[in-house]
């Protein structure tokens, strides 16, 4: 059975005898700024294949300039370049396939997240609205804090750590379970403005957080998501 690499190489060999002339020069060429012409040669034969695929005949610097400035790339050299090019194409195809599969998984995750809806538990004590700088006075009490997502770290699908800031300080907020699986939670990113509800507590021994305290969240609301393109990766499970 002929491999993808071998098939690509054979196509290149079939076309290289009558292909577009492409010039390469280790002395004067430039892979970034060249176009493969005699006046603007590429530096490497590989760049010729990248730009023109299998429709080229490659010329390189002549070893004997008394016979001319250019000479054809030898079959041995050509085969090495063709193998390199075929392998590069195979890796690119694998990468494209991976990106496609990742996008599909992400779309499925977002659609699934839209089904998860949370509501504030009205049986809990009413949350008092406070600023972060006053959190130390409210340990073991239920509070509501407005702020911006300064940092966010997702650990699996059931645990999310948020560092919230409000202009008066920073506070670690912990989301668990379904709170991490709503649409708003899945797309939440840095600089989003949110309000969080929950119980303030000292961090467990051996752990650290700003002010050695954290908010165990029981409900949250997104006031405004971050603008597209200027935020952290939306889904970054560990």
Could you explain how this protein is built, in words?
- This protein has 238 residues and is of the alpha/beta class.
- The protein is 27% helix and 27% strand.
- The longest helix is centred in the middle third of the chain and has 39 residues, at 75-113.
- Mean pLDDT is 88; it is low at 230-238.
Provide keyphrases for this structure:
238 residues, alpha/beta, so0334 like fold, OB fold (Dihydrolipoamide Acetyltransferase, E2P), 2 domains, 5-stranded mixed beta barrel, 4 helices, 27% strand, disordered C terminus
SS-based class: alpha/beta
Low-confidence stretches: 230-238
Structural domain tally: 2
The CATH homologous superfamily of the largest domain is called asparaginyl-tRNA synthetase, N-terminal domain
The CATH topology assignment of the largest domain is so0334 like fold
Radius of gyration: 30 Å
Alpha carbon gap, first and last residue: 40 Å
Helix content: 25-40%
Q: What's the total count of β strands? A: 9
CATH architectural group of the largest domain: 2-Layer Sandwich
Shape: elongated
What is the strand content? 25-35%
**Main sheet strand line-up:** 5-6-7-9-8
Instruction: Specify the biggest β-sheet.
Output: 5 strands, mixed, barrel
């Amino acid at each position: 059975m002929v491999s993808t690499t071998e098939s690509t190489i054979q196509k290149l060999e079939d076309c290289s005898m009558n292909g577009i002339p492409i010039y390469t020069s280790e002395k004067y060429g430039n892979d970034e700024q060249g176009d493969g012409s005699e006046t603007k040669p590429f530096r490497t034969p590989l760049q010729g294949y990248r730009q023109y695929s299998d429709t080229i005949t490659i010329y390189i610097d002549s070893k004997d300039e008394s016979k001319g400035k250019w000479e054809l790339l030898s079959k041995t050299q050509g085969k090495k370049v063709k193998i390199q090019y075929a392998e590069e194409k195979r890796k690119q195809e694998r990468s494209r396939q991976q990106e496609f599969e990742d996008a599909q998984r992400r779309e499925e995750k977002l659609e699934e997240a839209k089904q998860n809806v949370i509501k504030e538990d009205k049986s809990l004590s009413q949350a008092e609205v406070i600023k972060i700088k006053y959190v130390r006075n409210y340990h073991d009490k239920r509070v509501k804090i407005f702020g911006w997502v300064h940092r966010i770290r997702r650990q699996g699908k059931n645990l999310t750590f948020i560092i919230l800031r409000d202009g008066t300080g920073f506070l670690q907020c912990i989301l668990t379970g379904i709170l991490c699986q709503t649409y708003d939670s899945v797309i939440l990113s840095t600089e989003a403005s949110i309000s969080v509800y929950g119980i303030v507590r000292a961090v467990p021994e051996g752990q650290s957080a700003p002010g050695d305290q954290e908010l165990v969240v029981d409900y949250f609301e997104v006031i405004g998501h971050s603008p597209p393109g200027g935020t952290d990766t939306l889904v970054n499970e560990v």
